[in-house]
């Protein structure tokens, strides 16, 4: 049976991050955090993919206009300098219980940097400043500068780069996917051809696309960024996506995409987790990030930590000039066998 794990994490204390209770061999923990306590991380493991984010700090949560939804600060009693650190892993049909949460600590020394939809400027500065030891893992949309008499948009094509850079320590191969700018009914934005991409689930490969549908994955890197799918040895696939992303005919047994850029993770009949990442906007030297989460439940008796009324949007800025504001870490197991495509 296809199995998907996810982790939700919250902390407003700088320096804290996620430590898994059931730590996996051959897994990677990738963490973004700020000195105000923001944590955003992605985990790639031999049998799980998960992410974490701060949803208690009032400095990072901003209510959506006309949402009419409950204020998370008031619900969870989060203050300026205190808060709760919660985490849990759960799979299809599992219950999400408050008493399963625990706290972990992230040491000051960083092993690497996770690049997210931006050029290598921040990565190079972090390494040169000694904030990180290695450029451990990165995926960037490197835009090719081209001039056209027919359009003012000089960003017409480029490459999406994924994988590791130190083969002695990291077992991922450096790979690139050519991308082209398209504007058709079925293909709009910067698109990656998926016709040769296959997903491995429990040693069984199947195409990422439907034969009767378009075979491209499209996004707009100038206004949004995308975390592309990753493949582990027997890992399920997870997309964490921007609002401009669409994948014609993409299919996954436990992952459904919506027209608004939301991906829904089904954990049994009455448990659906919506994860939406949108408005990745580059303004000058700053990368603005807006995210929202929503756990839906059919019955008030369901053992779920938060419901539809707790959905909020997350907005923050990673300043690419001030290294004290934002940095990242990537910790890999030397026995990992992770592939990115």
UniProtKB/TrEMBL annotation:
PROSITE patterns assigned: PEPTIDASE_A1
Residue ranges of domain Peptidase A1 in the record: 1-328
Pfam families: Asp
Keyword Oxidoreductase applies: no
Signal peptide limits: 1-15
Keywords assigned by UniProt, alphabetized: Signal
Coiled-coil segments on the chain, per record: none
Name of the protein described by the UniProt record: Peptidase A1 domain-containing protein
